Amino acid sequence: GLLVGVLHEFVGKWVGSSTSLAALPTAVPFLLLFVVLLFTPKGKLPDFGQVVRAQVSRSWLRGRQARLGGVLLAALALTVPFFAGAKTILFTTALVYVGLLLSIGLLMRLSGMVSLCQVGFMGIGAAIFGRLEGGAGLPWPIALLLAALLTVPFGAVVAIPAIRLSGLYLTLATFGYGILVEQILYRQPWLFANSAGVHANRPPAFQSDSGYYYFVLGIAVVLSALVAALERARLGRLLRALGDSPRALAMHGTNINVLRLIVFCVASFLAAVSGALYVPLFGSVNGDSFPSFTSLVLLALLAICGRNVVLAAIVAGLAYVVAPGYLNSSTLVNALPMIFGVSAIVAALGGIRGRWKETPSWPLRRDWSGRVPSRSPAPVPLASRHAAPAYLTARSSLPTPSYSQRTARP
Predict the structure, then answer these.
(1) CB distance 97 to 297 below 8 Å
(2) Where are the alpha helices (DSSP H) in 63-166?
(3) Residues 93, 99: contact at Cβ < 8 Å?
(4) How does pLDDT run across 47-80, given as a tens digit for each residue?
(5) How far is CA 107 from the centre of its chain?
(6) Strand pairing partners for 284?
């Protein structure tokens, strides 16, 4: 406490009237948290609690019902501008968030890691895209690709604590990193700089709301297909093994540090694409559009919406943006936070209960008469329980040695 207070006052005096570092004193506790977690010996950060992680479900990708559902979902997505009207922008915003939610799901569901700074990567991608497209006048595809690639090094920085930390400590480190991005990086002149923020234009052929909706829909489909292909590829199998047991994966000869670096870089790329698509939606944005606390809300919402990475990202985007836009009752709108909190608690308890169900404790149960249930193995007869093992009772095929042979000295 004394160290935080002294550093707060010292940094405030050192910053002075600097505009770009004005929020640095406020971020001192989170900066100190990040540094302490990064340099504390791993032996002093013991793991505690039980990690409950449901396996990734991919059953919706196969079967006749799945194909029929995919066709109906595609038909519904293509007809949104015809029945949504002025609220088409809500569906466009939900599709913009699909890339961000895919990045969170890629880390949480597939890799077993939690990152609370993904919205910060979205903000960095939005700011760089605004500087390139709206400021430098680069073509739309080039500006989009460069904004996503230039955000990847910021995601690689998060892989440094991920190499040393796990569980709660990695969550705290990424949360502190997200606060630093919001309080310090957003205010730099090469990002948002001030409250005016950055601006960007929509693609020339997709200027209308319905046109830009179809453009974002196409990019969301491409990102979803890439993540689905990654799940089925060798990298996806390695990431699932990383989430199950990093130690076992390392014993099989895989460099888990490189694997963590790759997955954080891919996740930051997806989040940056979402940020680049977000800027032309409203014309201009600033750092206030990407608060770091939103990462925690989206993480909990994604956990509620199911175990499938792609499908949960789509459902979570619709629930986060579209559902509140269609609610006209003020009472229901005010009750949304309570509904969200209760749903998150139920989802967490359901995951723990599902983990408990996996333990084969049923052979230990008995009914009221003391008999074993029918699905348990047949009880061993009492006589055979106390019988001598077969290797002791079986006759030996070797000849019995004589007395002289048994008493002869070597």
Answers:
(1) no
(2) 64-78, 80-84, 88-105, 118-129, 140-164
(3) no
(4) 665 555 555 555 444 556 666 777 788 888 888 8
(5) 4
(6) 199
